[in-house]
Design a protein that fits this description.
By secondary structure, the chain is of the alpha+beta class. It folds into 2 domains: 76 residues, Nucleic acid-binding proteins (OB fold (Dihydrolipoamide Acetyltransferase, E2P), Beta Barrel); 164 residues, de novo design (two linked rop proteins). A 5-stranded mixed beta barrel has the order 1-2-3-5-4. It has a 3-stranded antiparallel β-sheet with strand order 7-6-8, with no helix packed on it. Strand 1 and strand 2 form a beta hairpin. Helix 1 packs antiparallel against helix 2 and helix 4 crosses helix 5. The termini are far apart. It binds zinc ion (ZN).
Length: 266
Amino acid sequence: MPVLPQPVVHSRAVVLRAWPSGETSVVASLLTEARGYVRVIAKGARQGLSRLQPLVGPGRLVEVEFGWSPGRELQYLKGGSLLLDPLLDANSLERTAYALSALELADRCRPSGVRETGLFGLCRRYLEMLSSCAAGDEAPLFYAFETALLELQGIAPELAACAACGGGLEAPGCRFSPAAGGAVCGACAGADDRPLAPETLAALRSLGGAAPERSSRRTSRETGILLHRFLTYHLPEYRLPAGLELLRAARSADAAAAAAKDDEPC
Ligand SMILES: [Zn+2]
């Protein structure tokens, strides 16, 4: 029986996750432009000087070449090049945490059924923007990513008018209702719905635009909480990404240290 040469796919890809396999290899999940979600094995990638090693670092944008056997769970990574490592320069806890959190969400909340959904493009643009953003812009970029992920799934929050009655949101008393599908007016709001301040509504609206606006720390935090609740309600696969847990722990440790310092006798 003649052996057909195995087809090879060339594609840009985002490395979502990677974990060791055997003595020297790495298995990585890639979000590829050409084939969507693909898992590859990089043989010998943990050995010094392996040319595959730079291609399997989580958070990286790479150009890869892999053998393609549709029935196989793991494809063989053959080669490629590194296009962008957003964590290489100006590395900070914020940038690392938000980069890995977005990729964790992309990995867990992939739209199913359709091969190319726009998710690769979304992750690529996010990593490019994150790698060049000013310190402090990481959070709004991440919230914009979450909003775009919801849009891909066809469940972005309604923010233009009341999600329940279609009325205006100018009057005070607006709240945010994941169950109703977004912002609701005072008349439609339930007691359990979280109050929605005008600044938070403006911040949420700006996330759908080209450049999300930076807001006060309080508004930014509130925006994150509302999106977290919306994602929890609408995407069963969603849970708070590990990167954000890490950031939260680091921030509360900082706050505790600052408070302890304030308590020191003069
Ligand atoms: Zn209403």
